[in-house]
Amino acid sequence: MSQFDQESIVYGVIRHVPSSEELASRRERRNNLASIQCLPTGMDDDFSLLKREMFSMAGADVFSGAYQTQVIHFAGSYRAVEYEWENWLRQFEALLKSMYWVSATVHLETELSGKHTFNWQAEYGHTPSDADLRMSCEWEREGAFAI
Question: Which domain of life is it from (predicted)?
């Protein structure tokens, strides 16, 4: 099997707890939506590993899926994305830098390297900026032992 026959699954969630002030809350949610809508579509001739269609979010109120937290979820299937993982992370962090959020989690499932979980936390909430982001990673390897 060549490296290009390997499938990688990436999925996760970005969480944001909007301001309790109504106007600020709407502005923050609109900003996050605009950040996602700025991503290229799958039909674009772009080499982006993040595509707009990968992302989805609930509405802005309790009746459309946002009780208190704005939940932005995403998923994608790639051909051996682990070989381009640094580039994927760089693009994801660029997206995070443009958004309001309190935490983000990315799960990477690979056939050869096992499962990896990447977490970003912003203790007081992240506001759009170019500030460095802190990420932690956990690795879980599932494998059968041959006897």
Answer: Bacteria
Domain membership flag for residue 146: no
Residue-range definition of the domain harbouring residue 74: 3-140
Report which of 77, 101, 67 is spatially closest to residue 7, judged by C-alpha positions.
77
- Give the count of domains, the chain: 1
The identity of residue 82, as a single letter, is E
Helices (H) and strands (E) in the chain, counts: 2, 6
Domain annotation covers residue 111: yes
Residue 70 near residue 18 (C-beta atoms within 8 A): yes
pTM value surpassing 0.85: yes
Give the least confident one: 4-13, 57-66, 82-91, 112-121. 57-66
Burial zone of 100 (CB within 10 Å; 0-12 exposed, 13-18 middle, 19+ buried): buried
Residue 147 counted as domain residue: no
Identify the burial level of 55 via C-beta atoms within 10 angstroms of its C-beta, where 0-12 means exposed, 13-18 middle and 19 or more buried: buried
